[in-house]
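Much of what follows relies on a compact textual record of a protein's fold. Each token is a code from a learned vocabulary of local backbone shapes. The record below shows the convention in full.
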Amino acid sequence: MALLRLSGTLDPMTGDALQLAVRHSLATEPNRLLLDVSGLQIGDPRGLTALSAVVCQTADWPDVPIVLCGASPETAAVIQAAPECAELSFAPDCEAALAQAGSEPVPPEVRIRLRPVPDACRQVRQLVTQACDAWQRSDLSGTASLIATELVANVVRHAHTTMEFTFGLRDGRLRMSVRDGSRRMPKPADPDLSSPGGRGLWLVRDLTDAWGVLPVSDGKVVWTRLSKAA
């Protein structure tokens, strides 16, 4: 769980800073993100655009509920009036939000740090297979293992940095991500038909329900979501 305390006046300029801060918190993939807005004032409703953009993003990844804590009646009224923020939850304060979160089961998740070596692909395949069996999602084991292998192999081939692989289950959907220390954004290549490589991200795209890249200050997070076998 992550807690982000916001203060000051929200307007289009500070909204951009808010968006960056929320994305940074989401990059750690908490099971819930609490935004303490007790010290926040809405100076310009257009500043909510940044907040709504992040909320919409979490619908695909990382499926993290966002809870606004301590909103004044005026702030809550402005936020609730924005259609883009309909998915936000509210709590009277962060203590109440923490108490509620503590009463709910934590979605299963595994994380592992890997070095950028070829054997990392074998390690991640083994981890994914074992987790799928434990979570009664062996029907997705083969597809998930293939996706995980491609994500990790991409770091080994191109980023050359230590990585953190995260694999979890939420609401029946498998989600996985790889965070590395390179700010070079991946993109599907258009290899020649005779080329032996370059098709990894196309494979990830074709096998998953959704995938994307989240830039962070010290690198990036490549994420995927999967709910059914290919």
